[in-house]
Amino acid sequence: MNQTAIGVLAITGALAALFIVVFAAQAAYDAVSGSGMMDDVGDMMDDGMDGMMDGMMGSGGPETAGSASDRGEVLIEGFRFEPTTLNVTPGTVVVWTNQDSAPHTATARDKSFNTERLDEGESDDVTFHKPGTFEYVCDFHSWMEGRIVVSP
Known about the structure:
Elements: H1 3-33, H2 37-56, E1 65-68, E2 71-76, E3 81-82, E4 85-88, E5 92-98, E6 107-108, E7 123-128, E8 132-137, E9 145-150
Parallel strand pairs: 1-4, 2-5, 4-9
Antiparallel strand pairs: 2-3, 5-7, 6-8, 8-9
Helix pairs in contact: 1-2
């Protein structure tokens, strides 16, 4: 594992630990004071924080599928690939675009392709010629998984 990945994991772990400590402190205060602060935290979680934390903690959500011919697109958003499975025909160019503030890659498990590092707003593409299933991950966030299925 490279130093960048270790650093990202360390920062993610530290932020998660800080979140847990703050959440526990608010729960304790709520229990003692009866002020209802936990209701406010619950509202904040319902407003989208839970989706971000789910993505960062590896429970990226439901599997999604898409299809394309000639040109396909995979968005990187919320620490997940969307769609998670893209079905394409031979010769299709697949474009990955990072919409997260964190850097990501799309790297084939068999090392047959790699977008390299994509910062927010950056894109890279790969052309798929051979039929087969190509599973890929993010080099920085190994729980992020996707696949390209090439069939005639």
